[in-house]
Amino acid sequence: MTGVSLAIPPSALLLLGLQLALIIGLRYLLVSGAFALVAARRKPELFRPADPARRRRLRRQVRREILWSLLSVLVYAAPAALAFAAFEAGGTRVYLRLSEGPLWWWPVSVFLYLAIHDAWFYWTHRAMHHWPALFRAVHAVHHESRPPTAFAAMSFHPWEALSAAWLYPVLVFLVPIHWSALAVVAAIATFMAVTNHMGFELFPRAWVHGRFGRHIITASHHDLHHQRFNANYGLYFRFWDRWCRTDAGLRPDF
Ligand SMILES: [Zn+2]
Ligand SMILES: [Zn+2]
């Protein structure tokens, strides 16, 4: 890593960081914007509540969600730029040719990246809810969204964004992964962050209340976290919530 940071001048690193921030920011705006449109069509009352005071509050909330998210974009771009520079210098374990690893590793690496992120998120998230001072300083921003919208996907205080932003950029130095598997991990992370906050269930009811929903977190599960605060801390999977008895189930009305 030291050799890599010496190999790239700070100005080039800064430019790379800004380029990545632009990509992450556009991805956020496009995906959240698209799903917010879907939400507004499917459940018009989500974005146009009848009560004018609630409507004004919602407009302020969405503005706040977007501003915090764009700030998070900068926090996410910094470690991503370091990892990308290292990748270009051949210093990471990201590989370009499928033949460089066994084929079975491709799905395993996707699952492993998501599972490690999920475990990290569960325990840090639970800690933030456990200690009131930590909650106020780090996580309260995310919970200002009640109920959240698709724009809350990256609505974190910079401290909270920092607590997660380094994880994948460090994992690429430790766990081998094909670039396309990494792209799939990023796509799943984005899709779930947005859809779990969009205010209604995207998946068919039979899925959500069947085997899929028993293991995978969807809006019905995460929205309950935003409502109750003291349960459903997971990110992608329900394993940790189940094992640690913090699973409060699903919102029945979604
Ligand atoms: Zn949330
Ligand atoms: Zn929380």
Index terms:
binds zinc ion; mainly alpha; two-stranded parallel sheet; 2% strand
The chain-level mean pLDDT equals 94
Q: Shape from CA axes?
A: globular
**Backbone structural class:** mainly alpha
Radius of gyration: 19 Å
Low-pLDDT segments: none
Strand order of the largest sheet: 1-2
The total count of strands amounts to 2
The hetero molecules present are: zinc ion
Describe the 3D structure.
It is a single chain. This protein has 254 residues and is mainly alpha-helical. It has one domain (2-243). The protein has helices at residues 2-7, 10-42, 52-88, 105-130, 132-143, 158-165, 167-174, 179-195, 205-208, 211-215, 219-228, 239-243, and strands at residues 94-95, 177-178. The protein is globular, with a radius of gyration of 19 Å. 33% of the residues are buried. One zinc ion (ZN) binds next to α11. One zinc ion binds next to α11.
Write the layout of secondary structure elements.
Blueprint: H1 2-7, H2 10-42, H3 52-88, E1 94-95, H4 105-130, H5 132-143, H6 158-165, H7 167-174, E2 177-178, H8 179-195, H9 205-208, H10 211-215, H11 219-228, H12 239-243
Parallel strand pairs: 1-2
One zinc ion is lined by residues 125, 129, 139, 143, 225.
